[in-house]
Every structure is written in C-alpha cells, then in structure tokens.
Design a protein that fits this description.
single chain, elongated, 70 residues, 3-stranded parallel beta sheet
Length: 70
C-alpha cells in the first residue's frame, strides 16, 4: 500500500539530507529524492546520494543545472 502523503527530499548525499529522508519516511511519506549536478567537482556527493536512495528504496532524480548558470 502506498501512502497518500508524498514528499520531495533534496538529497545531497550528506548526513543532514539523509536524516531528512529518514524522518520523512518514518512519518509515512512516500518519498522522491532529488539532487543537483551544478558543474562543480562534487561527483562524490552524487554517488553518495545514489547509494542512499537505492538503500532507502526511493527514486532519485539528478537535475543538471550547469548549463543554466552559463
């Protein structure tokens, strides 16, 4: 059964956003994760967000905003 409560969680791959995801899930939200690729050297964070989303069983959207800043 899926929840009627839905949340988008900005997932950076760090402790704070991972905790936010865990809290939302524990409160019964059906969560969708989102992270941003903004053209800097943070591929490590994106890989961490992928691992966390997979472990939590939520989908992860990676939004590229590098071209928007140019």
């Amino acid at each position: 059964m899926t929840s009627d409560k839905r949340a988008v969680v900005l997932l950076s791959g760090g402790l704070d956003s991972t905790t936010s995801l865990a809290i939302a899930m524990s409160e019964g939200y059906q969560c969708y994760a989102m992270t941003f690729r903004y053209g800097q050297r943070h591929q490590f964070e994106i890989e961490a967000a992928k691992r966390i989303a997979t472990a939590a069983g939520v989908s992860l959207a990676i939004i590229s905003v590098a071209t928007l800043a140019a």
